[in-house]
């Protein structure tokens, strides 16, 4: 009896320490998922979510970010922005190696910047970079033509992967995007190395034993299965076949999964990616040229209906083109609460009286089935202020993208990402020199000299407080002139089982190294 | 027919020459048909708005005009239509299906990687549907107005009219979630180690649900057809004779009638070859089955012209070769067909 009690006590003690400390455990295979097929494993030449997740495990970047948008050392153990903002010095970790055992040097940093400049779609990330100086093996000095505060975010997540010059340097810089090593025998700098990439089936990566952070990563292996069907993914989370998955966004599925025992569903970790849903308005077309008409449309649409009835409360309200999680977000802008009288008055004032029960007709587009309820709702809502809306569906994404790129639309539901600093993902939507240049350019045809000026100043302003003030005014003007009616964030969520410790959060979700994630017993 | 050498040949020899001539004629037509399929498909894809540059830009989260132009130039999409078509046909004639823009891989390699999974799924589903379908058809033909017969009719119509993605999800909820018998998706569990038998068993478990889903469509076809032909055969004279000899009902049905009733069913199964890829597209997508169907669907969405054309070319090839073989086989078996062109 005595022994039995002792045994209980020891067991209880063990159990309590396990809960209290929750020490990361080494080993295990994490089974996770990617929702679309992957074309390329190298984020230096291919941006986007599908490449970002495996890419950030295979390749390290100079910096990483914590939850409150503060840069942290990663491949660069320290960094220094010059007083005049015209150079940034990176001091690299000394013992860092590529997966083939070769040391990671400042030459590789310079090479990677060249490759990204030549191949990456987000030109604004490194556009002001003039050269990268390499005074010694572990020091890289990035020389800039003008101060470029966006650079710090552009050196984190999956945006700046450091790749080996001795592997990728055998072809001209512009051809690195089709280098065979982007999909097979990839040699990277990150915490995990490639085991197998089977297109349409899975990507398997395993622990890189010589990773430059001692003792990490914790996991032995990550299996990234490719599963396109969200309903099938949901069942796989529920029956435990998948430990974790990111970028789940269907409200009904999120609701269902959050009620399942042993699963956590969280919207945390997507601030850097900054996905936003909005109603795009072509400001160069017919009645929509008039700002009063655009305002009337905003007053006629009940944002709460979108948030509660369509998104089932899974999405956050967003009032401007900057994601609510960003430090630059300005909450104090005009919000256009539902007001049909105001909407009618504005339309009358703009010179569009009701004739035979209608004021004028518009079309609304959408590019993928998930947002069809939104456009159907806009049609119904605008009917109440006598605007006839015809819903135009597109056969598939490229059909819609072509219409948007050529500005062949009146209204459209759209989803656009911030991608870190506003310079990278926000400016493109409002910049008057970027009108009608393909999907996700300034497809609204919006031009305002002050907005252009504010963006130009903010791009080079090194003082965070002054920068915030510039973006504050920028957001006020956008909310007042409404080239876009901002409604909500795209509700990206990470789903993970109780077995997963330290799920990836920060600002980049799984588009960052998951070297701290581990599997519990 | 007035050629002098003909007279020297025996009757059998003349038939052989005739047989070879008609066969080579068929092969020639088949090649022409393949080229026509390619040209038509190429033109149709070009009519669709948007191109692969747009979808690459989507997967990248947006790209500027300069980059879009560069992508188009890299893949020759800025060339006139006829030039692109000519290049492609030229490539195919030299046995090169081209390079996938979206997957950064030669199309032939891409198709060959996905082919085994699709073949496994489609062939096992066909076999399952054939066996169960014929069985159900025969059982219901014996008592056409019995309860079993009505039940089979209901089952067949249900399987045929229910959308496969819906059947698939329903089976998933039932047998992967509520009763956790089978895995949800994919073809194998890469986390298990083991020898050949462990792996084979794992693939078998993954195969069950997609196979049943896909079979449910064909099942209806086979059970209805075998029911109809069986009923016809059962009413024929020789069956009555067999019964008059004093054979049991089972002997009559399974030994005498079934053989004759089966031939139209087998012909239909042969024709279903064309459904190899089309039938698998939705099932593969629901179950993340890494086969050609998923690839076809994704490349259409991605406007990845070389891959779409490669798959279409491949399916056309399968159908044409399948028909050719059936034709040749029929001619070899049935002398009545030989003389006809």
Overview features:
heterodimer; A: 521 residues; D-Maltodextrin-Binding Protein, domain 2; 2 domains; seven-stranded mixed sheet; five-stranded mixed sheet; 20 strands; 21% strand; globular; disordered N terminus; B: 341 residues; mainly alpha; two-stranded antiparallel ribbon; 77% helix
How would you describe this structure to a colleague?
- The complex is a heterodimer of chains A (521) and B (341).
- Chain A is α+β, with helices and mostly antiparallel strands and 521 residues long.
- Chain A has 16 helices and 20 strands.
- The radius of gyration of chain A is 25 Å and the shape is globular.
- The two termini of chain A are 30 Å apart.
- Chain B has 341 residues and is mainly α.
- In chain B, strands 1-2 form a two-stranded antiparallel sheet.
- Chain B is globular.
- In chain B, helix 6 packs antiparallel against helix 7.
- Chain B has 14 helices and 2 strands.
- The chains are: A alpha+beta (521), B mainly alpha (341).
- At the A-B interface, helix 2, strand 10, helix 6 and helix 12 of A face helix 3, helix 4, helix 6, helix 8 and helix 13 of B.
What is the fold's blueprint, element by element?
The complex is a heterodimer of chains A (521) and B (341).
Chain A (H helix, E strand, L loop, with lengths): L1 H20 L7 E6 L14 H10 L4 E3 L5 E3 L2 E6 L5 E6 L13 H14 L9 E8 L2 E6 L6 H4 L10 H4 L23 E7 L3 E6 L13 E6 L3 H9 L5 E5 L2 H8 L4 E4 L8 E7 L9 H10 L2 H8 L29 H10 L10 E7 L5 H12 L3 E7 L3 H9 L5 E7 L4 H4 L1 H4 L18 H12 L3 H18 L2 E6 L3 E5 L2 E2 L16 E2 L2
Parallel strand pairs in A: 1-10, 1-11, 14-15, 14-16
Antiparallel strand pairs in A: 2-3, 4-5, 5-7, 6-7, 8-9, 9-10, 11-18, 12-18, 13-16, 13-17, 19-20
Chain B lengths: L3 H5 L2 H37 L4 H9 L4 H10 L6 H13 L5 E2 L4 E2 H36 L4 H15 L2 H15 L17 H39 L2 H8 L4 H23 L3 H12 L5 H10 L3 H29 L8
Antiparallel strand pairs in B: 1-2
